[in-house]
Structures are given as structure tokens and as C-alpha cells.
Design a protein that fits this description.
Layout lengths: L7 H8 L17 E6 L5 E5 L9 H12 L8 E5 L12 H6 L19 E2 L2 E4 L5 E4 L5 E4 L1 H9 L6 H12 L3 H17 L3 E2 L1
Parallel strand pairs: 2-3
Antiparallel strand pairs: 1-2, 4-8, 5-6, 6-7
Helix pairs in contact: 5-6
């Protein structure tokens, strides 16, 4: 038996390397980890949830967790218990991650008809030397963004209304329509403020 003692901090460090396949944030910042216990034999018990019950990538995420935790020296058995109570909500995310994804802001500051307005992207997409994603507006101002924001920006091609964009992403991500619409409105506002779309 290993004399190495495994700590919760080590477990959380490895868990932060597991990204949710649908939302580009690690599972700790996303609030999916409800509890970690390590016993005297270094057996690890993880209580975690998923963003949606029907998450098709459920098993992928569990394997990812185990694969990352197995890299810890002296670790014993790893048990991942998926729980649905309390259910996951956006509020469980770390505030910084929530802000980065544009969640948690109220309705749009500008008035807009969701049924007729067709947002149109402007500016350019670029990649930084470190592989980071950057959107550059027409005034040459750069904004660091994530993959999800690039996909959304790219889909604002003036052919879809806000309602159609919400339908499209709701279906694609398997997330509730209401939640997606709220996120899209917040994202639109940020991109509009950054002069990366016009409506």
C-alpha cells in the first residue's frame, strides 16, 4: 500500500482539467462537483451531477474524471456517484465562469424584436499564438472569447432571427429553450457593446 497521502486539493486540481463537453468550462467551476471525500486508504468518492438529465455525454465525463484522477500518485479506488438532487442550475457556477460565458445579466438594454431582428456579425475571428480565440471589431479592438461565443458569433449571419437562433442552440445543446434564450440575449448584448454584431 502506498504511503502517499492523497489530498482533496489534489483531487480538485485534477477535476479542474475535466471540461464539460457542452459548455466550455471545467466541471469544478461549472458547479457539477457536489462533494469529494478521500478516506485513509486514498479511496476517492466523488458526488457529481450533470447540467441536464438527458446528457448524452454522461459516460464520457465520468471516464474523463477517472482518467484524470488516476494520474495522482498513490490514489486508490475512484467512485463517481451521479446525483440529481439538488438539480444543477446556472447559479451553481463560479461567478467568474458565469460572467465569462455572459450569464447572469438582465434583459437587453436596447429594444429589439426577437421575431424580426436578424443579428449580423462584424469584425474578424483570429487565433492567438497560445491557441486562444480572439474576435476583432472594425476599430481593431480585440476581445478574448471562448469556442461557444465564436460559434454563436459565427451563426449571426443575418439569416436567422433571435428566436431562430435560440431554437437552434436549444436543440443543439439539449438545454431548456428559456435558459438558452436568456443566455443568447446576454451574449448579444456583450457582442453588440463590443461592436462585433449589428442588429
Amino acid at each position: 500500500m502506498s504511503s502517499q497521502i492523497v489530498t482533496k486539493d489534489q483531487v480538485y486540481t485534477q477535476l479542474k482539467k475535466c471540461m464539460d463537453p457542452e459548455i466550455p468550462v471545467n466541471i469544478v467551476d461549472l458547479g457539477l462537483i457536489y462533494g469529494v471525500t478521500v478516506n485513509e486508504k486514498n479511496h476517492v468518492e466523488i458526488k457529481m451531477t450533470m447540467t441536464t438529465r438527458g446528457c448524452p455525454l454522461h459516460n464520457t465525463l465520468v471516464s474523463d474524471v477517472k482518467r484524470n484522477l488516476e494520474k495522482i500518485d498513490g490514489i486508490g479506488d475512484i467512485n463517481v456517484d451521479i446525483v440529481w438532487d439538488p438539480p444543477w442550475t446556472i447559479e451553481k457556477m463560479e461567478p467568474e465562469a458565469r460572467e465569462r460565458l455572459g450569464f447572469g445579466k438582465p434583459k437587453l438594454r436596447f429594444q429589439i424584436d426577437y421575431e424580426t431582428a436578424k443579428p449580423q456579425k462584424q469584425g474578424l475571428f483570429s487565433k492567438g499564438e497560445d491557441g486562444s480565440f480572439i474576435l476583432i471589431n472594425n476599430d481593431n479592438k480585440s476581445f478574448m472569447v471562448n469556442d461557444a461565443i465564436v460559434k454563436f458569433w459565427d451563426s449571426c449571419d443575418s439569416t436567422k432571427t433571435i428566436t431562430q437562433l435560440a431554437d437552434h442552440f436549444s436543440e443543439k445543446l439539449g438545454l431548456p429553450r428559456q435558459q438558452i434564450e436568456q443566455e443568447i440575449l446576454q451574449l448579444l448584448e456583450q457582442l453588440f457593446d463590443a461592436e462585433l454584431i449589428k442588429v
